[in-house]
Specification:
One of its GO terms (cellular component) is transcription factor TFIIH holo complex. This protein is mainly alpha-helical and 295 residues long. The chain contains nine helices and four strands; from the N terminus they run H-E-E-H-E-E-H-H-H-H-H-H-H.
Length: 295
């Protein structure tokens, strides 16, 4: 009996349980009872449902029921992340990046740049965890006043880089779109050509007194000649390159001196043969009757 009640507790209750973040801390309503309930987050990172926000801040600014911070209705936004700690950290780091936008080229050496990054990380940690808040905010104001010109310069630079990235992305999309349209146009033209050939073939078969087999064979031969005029490296037959004679040894100071090539199973002959194949690849169309040797 005890085990049965225990399994019932762990099974049924866990099945109908809901996250504490899905409960409005003001009216205690939850998504299980109200599936359409929408929770918004404030500047102090406390969630409330839209009904409570309309009721508490309908007449203007008012204190947060949880932390007493003065809030306005327009300050509530829909959260991006379910975890409010992540929401808070992302927003703080985004705001800090607007002022602490120095780059490595703004420092005399890497050590000073690393110290700067460590300082920014400490500031972010203090704001996220609300430690030494007044001192941290004073440090931020001091840094902003002392580095106005650099902050403004890097801001403009960042905007220009963003515009350039957006321009390149749009250009790449436009080029891909154009390539796709051209490819689609080629397919349509190829389809029309085939339909025209089929119509001509049907008409010729209907009006000709000759053998249908001979007409089809002639059309097939003509089509093969047309197709052979365009080189397709994928569908074309691969031909071995055997128009040279590979010597056992060459004068090659590169393979003799370069110690990086001396690995297990390495033979200089492989490099020489690869070089000869690359040199003669695609230069000629060879047949079995060709007798060409190169040393």
């Amino acid at each position: 009996m005890t085990s049965l009640s225990g399994s019932s507790k762990n099974g049924i209750n866990s099945r109908f349980s809901f996250d504490a973040d899905e409960i409005c801390p003001i009216c205690k309503n939850n998504r299980y009872l109200t599936p359409n309930m929408k929770l918004l987050v404030s500047d102090c990172y406390h969630k409330m449902c839209e009904s409570c926000i309309d009721r508490l801040f309908a007449n203007g600014a008012g204190p947060c029921p949880i932390c007493q911070r003065i809030l306005r209705k327009v300050s509530f936004i829909e959260p991006t992340f379910e975890d409010l700690r992540v929401e808070k950290e992302v927003k703080i780091r985004r705001n800090l990046s607007k002022q602490f936008n120095k780059r490595q080229e703004d420092f005399q050496n890497l050590r000073k740049y690393n110290d700067y990054l460590e300082m920014v990380e400490n500031i972010a940690w203090n704001l996220i965890n609300e430690v030494n808040k007044k001192e941290t905010e004073a440090l931020i104001d001091k840094f902003a006043n002392e580095n106005k010109e650099i902050i403004a310069h890097n801001k403009r630079k960042q905007e220009e880089e963003t515009k350039m990235v957006n321009y390149l992305n749009e250009k790449e999309k436009s080029e891909k779109r154009l390539k796709f349209e051209n490819y689609k146009k080629e397919l349509d033209e190829e389809k029309k050509r085939r339909e025209k050939h089929e119509a001509e073939l049907i008409e010729e078969l209907a009006n000709s007194k000759g053998s249908a087999a001979d007409i089809l064979a002639e059309k097939k031969a003509m089509r093969e000649i047309e197709d052979s005029q365009e080189f397709d490296p994928i569908s074309s037959e691969y031909l071995d390159i055997d128009c040279y004679t590979l010597k056992d040894k060459y004068y090659d100071p590169y393979t003799e001196i370069n110690t990086r090539l001396r690995a297990g199973g390495f033979i200089p002959k492989f490099v020489h043969e690869r070089a000869l194949q690359a040199a003669f690849s695609g230069l000629f169309t060879f047949t079995k009757s060709d007798d060409m040797e190169v040393e």
